[in-house]
Amino acid sequence: MKVDVLLGLQWGDEGKGKVVDVLTPRYDVVARFQGGPNAGHTLEFDGKKYVLRSIPSGVFQNDKMNLIGNGVVLDPVLFMDEAEALCQGGIDLKRSLKLSKKAHLILPTHRLLDAANERAKGDAKIGTTGKGIGPTYTDKTSRNGVRLGDIFENFGEKYTEARNRHIARLEALGAKPDEEELAKLEERWMKAVEYLKEYDIIDGEFAVNDALAEGKSVLCEGAQGTMLDVDFGSYPFVTSSNTVCAGACTGLGIAPNKIGDVFGIFKAYCTRVGSGPFPTELFDETGKKIRDLGHEYGAVTGRERRCGWIDLIALRYAIMVNGVTKLIMMKSDVLDDFPTIKACVAYKVDGKETDRFPYSIDADRVEPVYVELPGWQTPMSEMTSESQFPKEFNDYIAFLEKELSTPIAIVSVGPDRKQTIER
Ligand code: GDP
Ligand code: IMO
Ligand code: MG
């Protein structure tokens, strides 16, 4: 059996959670492979809305195994909050969810370090989600991390060594934590670590490969997006993990030759939250209109998302580094009443036109080149089949498929599970 991967092609918030939930009935296993509670994946069905941060979006379908892979960083407190809410809602999470022993833990001091690092950067701050993501991955790669599997052996020692090292670093940054406040955070954190012990903490790489050997199918759920990948994104304004398809291999223990379809998901326009360059960003009324109509506010932080036109240079690049086989277009309904739509088809870099994604996309070096297309000016959110698509929308799809040399397999016309059209 092959493993399919679903991942974001832009700067995150493309609608990954919604589509994973829609596709889950076709799979036996749904697995998260990177990121942590910086993610906010929104699902809507039966008139209810759910936001998942660390838990895979397959948990709402019965009889599926959901796995938090070794590539994920886990905050026990946020996990407990998220898990308890799901359990109270009737989800049998303790049966369906497994966690990899090799996932790294986000300590309370990692979050303090995240804030202190951002403060130290001043105007150059990344605009992180403040969840301790960067410091936790830093500890992982510098071989100082604390892993989920450690909670069963010499945990106190490992924890204390890490938190003392963090406190020394915080002091150097002029951000020595208040002892009483830290003690409170730690008490809650330790309680949450005990809660974690109620779950199956396993060798995730064996679980996935055993499932494949038994003929089971696996869907990997990405977090963030390709433009936030630590290698290929708009560095240094990125997250600290590999959000690209290769991250599914390292974040779960899946061999590259096991990868089947790679679903690349994008919005019919583009958004970004946090700092960093964004060539097609709109600062005018059109940008505001997209934000209002698309409810473009962060699921985790509530921050306004920056909005702009679709960027085909960035998308083509993302398709290349991920090996995308099928595209999924989200939120096309948000553009329903626009008389015209723009798409960036080239960049002018230092005055010279290129269709290649350059090393730097800083605003003072890159100018987007647009084509203008007619809008469809037809409400689409009630549509249930491709046959109902207006001509201009079909033309938009045909234009994108040609520019991106990849088929668009699914079109989403609203936040609900049901507002999903397969082609
Ligand atoms: P994720 O992080 O990639 O899972 O995406 P988010 O959940 O952070 O952001 C996507 C937002 O768009 C959520 O509020 C979804 O409910 C919403 N959404 C998803 N698909 C559609 C769509 O096709 N149309 C509209 N209008 N909203 C959508
Ligand atoms: P989902 O999975 C959008 C952004 C932050 C910041 C940068 C680094 O919901 O698509 P971090 O906290 O990871 O160190 O922040 O990355 N960011 C996201 N933006 N969606 C996300 O996740 C994001 N996760 C992180 O805003 O710019
Ligand atoms: Mg999100």
Describe this structure in words.
The protein is 31% helix and 22% strand. It is of the alpha/beta class. It has a 10-stranded mixed sheet, sandwiched between helices. Strands 14, 16, 17 and 18 form a 4-stranded mixed sheet that branches. The protein has a two-stranded antiparallel sheet with strand order 3-4. A hairpin with a 2-residue loop joins strand 16 (340-349) and strand 17 (352-354). Helix 4 (108-121) crosses helix 5 (133-141) and helix 4 runs parallel beside helix 6 (155-172).
Short note summarizing the structure:
The chain is an alpha/beta fold and 423 residues long.
What distinguishing features does this structure have?
ten-stranded mixed beta sheet, four-stranded mixed beta sheet, binds 6-O-phosphoryl inosine monophosphate, single chain, binds magnesium ion, 423 residues, alpha/beta, binds guanosine-5'-diphosphate, 20 strands
